[in-house]
Automatic annotation (TrEMBL):
UniProt-listed GO biological process terms: regulation of DNA-templated transcription
InterPro entries tied to this protein: AAA+_ATPase (IPR003593), AAA_lid_NorR (IPR058031), CBS_dom (IPR000644), CBS_dom_sf (IPR046342), Homeodomain-like_sf (IPR009057), HTH_Fis (IPR002197), P-loop_NTPase (IPR027417), PAS (IPR000014)
GO molecular function term, any single one: ATP binding
Domain CBS: residue ranges: 7-65, 71-128
Annotated organism of origin: Pelosinus fermentans B4
UniProt entry tagged with the keyword ATP-binding: yes
Domain of life: Bacteria
This protein's UniProt keywords: ATP-binding, CBS domain, Nucleotide-binding, Transcription, Transcription regulation
Domain Sigma-54 factor interaction: 385-615
Protein name in UniProt: PAS sensor protein
Stored Pfam families: AAA_lid_14 (PF25601), CBS (PF00571), HTH_8 (PF02954), PAS (PF00989), Sigma54_activat (PF00158)
Domain (PAS) ranges: 128-183, 245-289
Amino acid sequence: MRIRDLMNMNVVTVLPTMMLKEAAVILNNAGTDKALVVDDDGKLIGFISQRGFIKAVAISKIEDLCVQDIMTNRVVPLLYTKSVSELKEEFTLNQCPFFPVVDGENRPIGILHQNDVVTYLSDRSLLLVEETQAIIQSLYNGVTAVNAEGIVTLFNAAAEFITGLTADAVIGHHVDHVLPNTRLSRVLETGETEVNQQQTIANCTIITTRSPIFNGNKVIGAVAVFQNITELQTVAVELENVKNLKSTLESAIESFFEGIVIVDRSGKITMINQSYCDFLGVERERVIGLHVVDVIPNTRMHVVAQDGKAEITEIQRINDHNCVVTRIPIVKDGETVGAVGKVVFKDVKDLKILSNKLNKLEFELEYYKEELRKAYGGKYTFDSIIGTSEKMQWMKSIAMKAAKGNSTVLILGESGTGKEVFAQSIHNGSIRNNGPFIKVNCAALPENLLETELFGYDEGAFTGAKKGGKPGKFELANRGTIFLDEIGDMPISMQVKLLRVLQEREFERVGGTKTIKLDLRVIAATNRDLTKMIEKGEFRQDLYYRLDIISLAIPPLRERTEDIPALCDMLLKKINKRVQHDVEGIAAATLKLLMAYKWPGNVRELENVLERALNLMDDHEVLIAPEHLPPIVKKVNKESEPIEVSDNLAGMLDDTEKQAILKVLEEAGGNKSKAAKILGIHRSGFYQKLQKHNIK
């Protein structure tokens, strides 16, 4: 602030020769009690005041006096360019109520009163105090101050936040009473600064610096500046994490076999690994900070760093090599801040070699997948289902729809109708076709082994258990399909456990405690009437409802005789592969007999009849003739009595055998193994007779 900004520009000037009475009139009209006296050139030579007029009246008549008679010659002019801060010395040396302000030629241009300066300095001091308070209140660090008596005079907002105390509760009280651990009292006593001291205030650990406040050589107070140490520790941990992350990133980039380079937005290299340096034939220390175009030939890294558009697997010529490179922009907060480049292949030849290796591996993978599918999957597809009859086409369409889902399928039909063919076709037509297809014949497994076969067992589950345990059929079928054939012959006790597995889709091995989750499809099949078995209590109704979500009833061969010619063609091709005799087909008379027969054994019986015929044919024969068929097939067109008597006798023998088996089963309580022992035949032979007479 300059003097000219504070001075009063209302200046009254008089000449030294002017009569006092005239000067008095001028001062009265100007409303002032003083005037500056100037010479003829307008330069300051003194001043007159009210006091001079009073003195003049007292010593003589005013009419006889002029200005120079009462003028004060001792005047201290101030140059208008001086600053207010320079007035301290003038005010101290010259006890004047006002000071004339002059220009560079000592001509008066204003008057500066001490009161004006005092008012200005007072306002300025108040403003500085307010600014200082605002700064202290806005500081992130806590600040507290005390006077010479230890009374708290300052406690800013950050101090309130850190300590949990309010300024109203602290200011005006002795520091040892409200903040007993600040040690500001000790600073007042010693007058020494204490730097970076750790202490606890109001359950808060801080780092503080305590300093005395001096006025000359006298301590008039103390101030403490402090910060929550927890925040510093957090910042330190974050910095350490950043350093570790940077070190890890550098190590990772350095470990890459491929060349890696990183540039900033201006295209200058900020990081490059040794692999890239070796490929370029440069030293890393010399290229860091250089523009990428000066280091890497034909690069576009600087372009990607500017436009933010990635360039994937581009061809770039580097040192006589056609390289495959990728350039990716680095984006932060939606803005491209740089780019990272990678040499994917140092030469296109490497790409071709890798492509050949991948093609070979894909071929091997497909080969092993196919072998695995053959070993654990099904060999039949919907193309394997032969038949143009309406019933078969309808069943096939339903099965193809079922294959698209994951629901349980129940296949019903007589023995030999192709239930397993349908099951495998559904599996191979589903999304699980790459998973295993596991078949379980529920009728062929003894009751005491069925549980371990289905669910497996853990080591030590029973005497003789295999070391390490054994997975069951359900576990092997995970992510595939399990085919439960002859489900109608499953014991009631196992039906309960199977129901739980179907509901929960989980199980435990025998003797195990670990629950195994299942992700598979269940297909069940039977040649028995499950509804009648439910009425007799031989099959659980709740299990039936769980299985009978999608039901397929495969028609017997006698209900679709129009499919026999096509079936014969397919079966002959199949039999020719294992029988050393090629045939061209079937004679018309033979086909007539085949279509007239009732086929109780269905397609399986038809295959057996055709295989028997091929084995009985002479080498020169190429067509299956009627004489190659078994008598049971040929008898349908023969009505001679001997044949009929013979047939009746055979029927009587079959009935007798059937009745004997039923009686023994009744005596054995339904135990098939016990019944086989009573009859003195092998168990497998007994099962064949049960199947022959359709005894369940």
